[in-house]
Amino acid sequence: MTYDLAHEDTLASASSSADHLTHAANRVPDVTVDFWLIKLMAVTMGETAADFLAVNLGFGLTATSLLMAAVLAVALVFQFRQKRYVPAYYWLAVVLISVVGTLVTDNLVDNFGVSLVTTTIVFTVALAATLAIWYAVEGTLSIHEVTTTRRESFYWLAILFTFALGTAAGDLVAEHFALGYMASGILFGMIIASITFGYFGLKLDGILAFWLAYILTRPLGASFGDLLSQPVEYGGMGLGTTITSVLFLAVIVGIVLYMTAQNSRGDGITAA
Questions:
Q1: Backbone phi, psi, residue 85, to 5°
Q2: CA–CA distance, 81 with 87 (Å, rounded to integer)
Q3: Which of 93, 151, 256, 262 has the fewest C-beta atoms lying within 10 Å of its C-beta?
Q4: What is the 3-state secondary structure (H, E, C) of the chain?
Q5: pTM for the complete prediction?
Q6: How does pLDDT run across 118-163, given as a tens digit for each residue?
């Protein structure tokens, strides 16, 4: 009888732990139209903000990289402390990791002379390895189940590699292959549209579709960010990085305020 009671207590404890994991608050948002809109704004700003800090303010690539990496580290500390999805902290981390991901690729290419082909391959392998280890350890890659610190750590590492990869792939197509900013943006937009059709029309796996689209929104946003900010003689519209960054930051702040209001009413985009 003593063994039976102990065995039942063990089962009850395991069941309680599983229930706690199942019902723990998700730390990242659901995938909605708002999600993709602000993601696109964030990646576009990541491209222009990195250029603004390094070139316009004269910080240089190395100093800008160190500064933004430090700011990102602080932002992630606050993000991890929330234990749930809080729009302001989450999207601040996304914007900053977008900037840092851009700078990682720019440093490899500009400071260390690594080719865009090589960086694209390296970050593809790094992202694939991160997702493979995440799945091996956790048994899922679903962003609806980012309910523990370990899963969130895998999530942010994967996000960093998607931004670095997206930067490398976008520059590879627009600059190395000389397709130009507009044509590159249209190309990546068409690929994302085909993934969307595959998901809704052909029952493409949702997790695969999400990560493919997440990667490709980076070069899509960067292409249009460069199109708006770069000088006319380089194929852009000449708005400059300052105006472009401020415009997209204003849109991001507006959407985050809307998300925060929705989230506070309990009918927002937090998933359990």
A1: -80, 115
A2: 13
A3: 262
A4: CHHHHHHHHHHHHHHHHHHHHHHCCCCCECCCHHHHHHHHHHHHHHHHHHHHHHHHCCCCHHHHHHHHHHHHHHHHHHHHHHCCCCHHHHHHHHHHHHHHHHHHHHHHHHHCCCCHHHHHHHHHHHHHHHHHHHHHHHCCCCHHHCCCHHHHHHHHHHHHHHHHHHHHHHHHHHHHCCCCHHHHHHHHHHHHHHHHHHHHHCCCCHHHHHHHHHHHHHHHHHHHHHHHHCCHHHCCCCCHHHHHHHHHHHHHHHHHHHHHHHHHCCCCCECC
A5: 0.83
A6: 999 999 999 999 999 999 999 999 888 999 999 999 999 999 999 9
pLDDT, tens only, 102-112: 899 999 999 99
Q: Count how many residues are written for the chain.
A: 272
Calculate Rg over the CA atoms of the chain.
Answer: 20
Are the C-beta atoms of residues 150 and 137 closer than 8 Å to each other? yes
- The C-alpha atoms of residue 161 and residue 173 are separated, in whole angstroms, by 18
Tokens of 178: 């000389």
Residue carrying structure tokens 């976008």 = 170
